[in-house]
Amino acid sequence: MCLFFATDSKRYSQPRQVCSVCYRSFVGLARLHRHQQIAHISHVCAVCGKWFATLRGVQEHRAMHGREKRYQCSHCSKLFLKLWSLKTHEARHVRRERSHQCFFCAKSFKEAKNLRTHEQCHTTERPFLCAFCPKRFRTEAILRVHERIHTGERPYKCNYCGKSFNQPTSRITHERLHTGARPFACRFCDLSFGELNSRNMHERSHTGARPYKCSQCDRAYKDPLSLKVHTLRHAGERWKKCTHCPR
To answer: In angstroms, rounded to a whole number, what is the distance separating the alpha carbons of residues 46 and 238?
Structure first.
């Protein structure tokens, strides 16, 4: 099967710009700015210019500009409007001791059960078999999430719109679209994000880190999608297939 690559190779040499509102990525700042003007223009705070994913989020934010910052950090003098913002900040000052260290790598954990779950990724053992297909898994928790693909079960329902999900983390991430919560703050600037992966990818623009390395050449990328596109080019394949012709 032949997939389609964009013919302009210069596109892939440009860094992709990520929208801070919906986390879609674009080639070049011009396309990012055009997207934000079209998709999010009504969700901008008129006071500070901050972008939000929903109208409700920007309305709640605007109400805070006249309020007093009453939550003070116990480690420094910084003040916050919201309690969850204070807790996120204080977590940077205090790091609980991680006494349970992995036998195979340098990672350490706060609880022994988390260490045991982690150490299973270093072995090839997959004792948990799916009841519907031949797939096997390292933990029972991962197996339960997988089996919901077969059963269609979505037990985790959004408290705002009723949309349901097959795992709790997906529901939590979705609900931040309603609340405007951005608990993952960048360690290098004032930006914050609704998803940890988005924060991590953003921080690579500060550090220059490119952890996704090609196994066939010395190129490295900031995100797995860029690496996947690059790897397909080594194989002579194309990224997307035309729905109207064999190209």
So the answer is: 44
Average confidence (pLDDT) over 56-74: 74
pTM: 0.46
- More confident site: 181 or 40: 181
Given a contact cutoff of 8 angstroms between Cβ atoms, the answer to whether 212 and 230 are in contact is: no
94-125, pLDDT tens digit by residue? 655 566 788 877 777 777 888 887 887 787 77
How far is it, in rounded angstroms, from Cα 100 to Cα 139? Answer: 19
Q: How many residues are given for the chain?
A: 247
How far is Cα 13 from Cα 233, in angstroms, rounded to an integer?
Answer: 13
28 in Cβ contact with 17 (< 8 Å): yes
C-alpha distance from residue 179 to each of 161, 166, 208, 236 (Å):
12, 21, 31, 45
Domains of the chain: 9-95+180-234 (3.30.160.60)
